[in-house]
Design goal:
heterotrimer, A mainly alpha (216), B mainly alpha (127), C alpha/beta (286), A: 216 residues, B: 127 residues, mainly alpha
């Protein structure tokens, strides 16, 4: 089961290779945003929003090349292909946030900005939370409607990005629960991780259901 | 042995194979106990259906020209085998009948015809 | 098990297309041609066999196993070629090789390279840079390289020139020679492929017209020809299809009905002719 999922991840990765430039762009471009605002939180939010939008690539490559037929003949289960794709997208998220944080940290240092640890933590947690929310929402949409029609769901990361940009800072000041969480890293980590796991679990279940009923 | 398949003759392929193998057996080109090419090899070489070759071989067996030894292949029956001999006799009869018909048209007498046959037999024996 | 593929009472509907009660059996060691005009249900049948489409009713067994219950196990031993490439166009041949070898434990890289050489496929090219015929050969090479027991080809001859068609024929004959491999191919241009097929399954407008030995199929029908005045009402009734022209007619009849028309010139029908004539009947009925 696990080895099949890894095979599927590898296959999807082979499709993504041609888009390496776009993925690097999602990592480098937000640095300017960070420098402009002198804020890592916004830079990371932007990077993760950007990056989540590239989760449509595997879907659009498959569609453009009529590759459902290839997936259809290979000796692994449809659910394993779905989970393999999730794994690749999750790995991409982990990679993006790690590299982005390091690069942005360096960039901020260079312009003489002093970054506090709690700023990194909150940027990291916000980043992975946003990325997971976006992709967990987008992927079933792509499975259901394809990458072209599913693209309308991209409004979600965009909205989410705007929301984090304008609403979250104000929100955190007004709601006591949020500020408690923000002040206690352990609680914050727990809350974020649990919600990510739940979101992906639900999302995966929906995607598997969609593909098992799909006719190709 | 030579096997040539024609796509345009209108004769079914299995029939073409049968006729040519029969001819090869009757002419002595295929000797007694000689093995026919295996079903699947022949099908591959002629690029035709395995079932088509199977049908040709089965009918040849029914007509007594070959025998099928399970797991070993098809072998040519001896020319003394009753059925093959019968086929040969039929062939002789057919040839002679044709000769008689032609001799009637040519108004050859019975003696002249016999004489002609003797000469031909002698000439043939010399060869 | 002696049957590599068994299809029983297979039905599938979508929109106004209905595939109804398809039955056929392909024994181990033989080649079956799945024939019929475009849109008759050949690709649908193949996709149902591969569980890419979900059947409404019926049963499909491959190597004696259920095609859904044992899907993964079956697919290890299945080679599939479609009418157009299913690989990513951006991939180089090496990527095709790497991906295929990940999925098939029986993958044989040496064999793959051998087929690439045999097909003269340049190894450094991208899939999208190959011609359609070459893409088909690439799928064929990658199918053969994992030594499948059953090969399924959907319209394999599209995009192939006569030389390549002959090559394919040769390959299929070689493939089944040991009696351990079978081939199911669909096509709407029969021609030379009909020569290697042991069995024919003819689907017309979603319905099974015939499935069985090819020679038997071809023996079932004859073409009769004659002058216009010889086209009697009885013949019109018995004929499965008639083509009339100013100086006469051609009709497809069942061989068993031939005795009723001794004066007419009868000859064997090609598979193409059988398809054309039996299909015309369908149009006249509507």
């Amino acid at each position: 089961m696990m080895s099949n999922i890894l095979k599927a991840t590898k296959l999807d990765f082979a499709l993504m290779k041609q888009y390496t430039k776009s993925i690097l762009f999602t990592i480098f471009f937000p640095i300017f945003f960070t420098l402009l605002n002198r804020s890592m939180l916004f830079g990371i939010s932007f990077a993760m929003c950007f990056s989540s939008a590239t989760s449509s690539y595997t879907f659009s490559i498959c569609e453009a090349n009529n590759m459902e037929r290839f997936y259809g003949i290979l000796p692994i289960k449809r659910s394993e292909f779905v989970l393999g794709r999730y794994l690749l997208i999750i790995l991409q998220g982990v990679l993006t946030i790690t590299v982005s944080i390091i690069l942005q940290l360096l960039a901020l240092r260079i312009v003489g900005e002093n970054v506090q640890m709690h700023q990194i933590t909150s940027a990291f947690l916000t980043g992975i939370f946003l990325y997971s929310t976006y992709t967990a929402f987008l992927i079933p949409g792509f499975y259901k409607y394809g990458s072209i029609k599913g693209r309308v769901f991209l409004f979600f990361p965009t909205l989410g990005f705007l929301a984090t940009l304008f609403i979250l800072p104000k929100l955190s000041l007004k709601i006591p629960a949020v500020s408690i969480a923000l002040n206690s890293p352990a609680v914050l980590f727990a809350v974020v991780f649990v919600s990510i796991v739940i979101m992906y679990f639900i999302s995966m279940c929906i995607s598997v259901r969609i593909t098992e009923h799909k006719e190709i | 042995m030579k096997l040539i398949i024609s796509n345009t003759s209108g004769i079914p392929i299995y029939e073409q194979i049968k006729q040519q193998i029969k001819a090869a057996i009757l002419s002595g080109e295929l000797k007694e106990e000689e093995a026919l090419p295996s079903l699947r090899t022949l099908a591959k070489e002629l690029k035709i259906s395995v079932l088509t070759v199977t049908r040709a071989y089965t009918e040849l067996e029914q007509e007594g020209f070959v025998k099928n030894v399970q797991g070993r292949g098809c072998f040519v029956m001896g020319r003394d085998s009753g059925l093959v001999r019968e086929q040969l006799l039929l062939k002789v009869e057919a040839g002679l009948t044709e000769a008689i018909t032609a001799s009637k048209i040519a108004r050859l007498s019975k003696e002249e015809l016999h004489h002609l046959l003797d000469i031909l037999l002698e000439a043939n024996a010399d060869e | 098990m002696s049957n590599y593929l068994e299809v029983k009472d297979l039905s599938k509907s979508f929109g106004n297309f209905h595939l109804k009660n398809i039955n056929f059996t392909l024994p181990k060691g033989y080649i079956m041609g799945l024939i019929g005009p475009n849109g008759s249900g050949k690709t649908t049948t193949i996709k149902l066999i591969l569980n890419m489409l979900k059947r409404d009713e019926g049963e499909i067994k491959i190597f004696g196993l259920d095609n859904i219950g044992d899907e993964q196990k079956i697919k290890y031993d299945l080679g599939v070629v479609f009418d157009s490439s299913y690989f990513c166009g951006e991939w180089r041949i090496t990527q095709v090789r790497n991906t295929m070898s990940d999925f098939y434990p029986s993958w044989d890289t040496g064999r793959f390279s051998e087929f690439l050489r045999r097909f003269r496929i340049p190894q450094e090219k991208k899939v999208k840079e190959l011609s359609r015929g070459m893409q088909m050969k690439l799928m064929l090479a990658s199918a053969f390289a994992h030594r499948p027991k059953l090969l399924i080809l959907d319209e394999p001859t599209g995009g192939l020139d006569p030389v390549s068609r002959d090559e394919l024929l040769q390959l299929l004959s070689e493939y089944i020679e040991d009696g351990e491999h079978s081939v199911l191919f669909s096509t709407h241009v029969t021609g030379d492929l009909e020569r290697v097929a042991d069995y024919i399954t003819y689907i017309n407008d979603g319905q099974l017209f015939f499935s069985g030995g090819k020679d038997e199929f071809m023996d079932m029908f004859r073409i009769v020809k004659g002058g216009t005045y010889e086209l009697t009402p009885l013949l019109s009734e018995k004929a499965l299809g008639i083509r009339k022209f100013s100086t006469g007619f051609e009709a497809l009849v069942k061989t068993q009905d031939l005795a009723g028309f001794p004066s007419l010139c009868a000859e064997p029908a090609s598979i193409d002719e059988i398809i054309v004539f039996t299909n015309k009947r369908g149009e006249n009925d509507e």
